């Protein structure tokens, strides 16, 4: 099937409240343009330099999401244009995003990445680290970032019960954060739960996802 057909067939299965991020990492601009022509406006990349190159070449009504692990020293290369950073997992990174956003005279939306998988290798905060980040003075003082939700990746496994357990766990942390929001200005905008990829997005939606990051089912294997 073509990229446009893949895209439209996935979109037709998504509930209205679920946002589709088309994950276009490693794919050429021509492939992204095919998705663009079919109506897609949100693209996800996992390398800042690659995202910046595509941003320069492509129409300016595209929203660019950084879904990969972010190195602090590279934030400046996307601060001008990035729409949402999914993988924020430390106060230090958040402070750098805040600083670069300030330089560009804007507020950058961020998701905090939570570690839900069994694998040690996946990035993210645990619940304790999340709580201490949110209650720190440094966090309260940042004016140029906005936490709009959470992101997580399930363990890479065929075991659906395990994936469901991990997604449900993330959803419960998300619900807790939304409750907290009433008491913290910085959390007023928490509404996005980014979970689910090509292999597990249906399960993720059943578990409460509001944003799915889908690459290979749209653009083919990498
Ligand atoms: C690559 C990637 C995806 C998309 O994965 P697919 O299996 O190709 O859909 C989603 N989220 C993150 C963080 C990724 O790095």
TrEMBL record:
Keywords: Pyridoxal phosphate. The keyword DNA-binding does not apply. SUPFAM superfamilies: PLP-binding barrel. Gene3D superfamilies: Alanine racemase. GO terms for molecular function: pyridoxal phosphate binding. Residues 3-221 form the Alanine racemase N-terminal domain. Its cofactor is pyridoxal 5'-phosphate. The modification N6-(pyridoxal phosphate)lysine is found at residue 25. It comes from the Bacteria. Pfam families: Ala_racemase_N. The keyword 4Fe-4S does not apply. Belongs to the pyridoxal phosphate-binding protein YggS/PROSC family. Pyridoxal 5'-phosphate (PLP)-binding protein, which is involved in PLP homeostasis. HAMAP family: PLP_homeostasis (MF_02087). This is Pyridoxal phosphate homeostasis protein. It comes from Flavobacterium gawalongense.
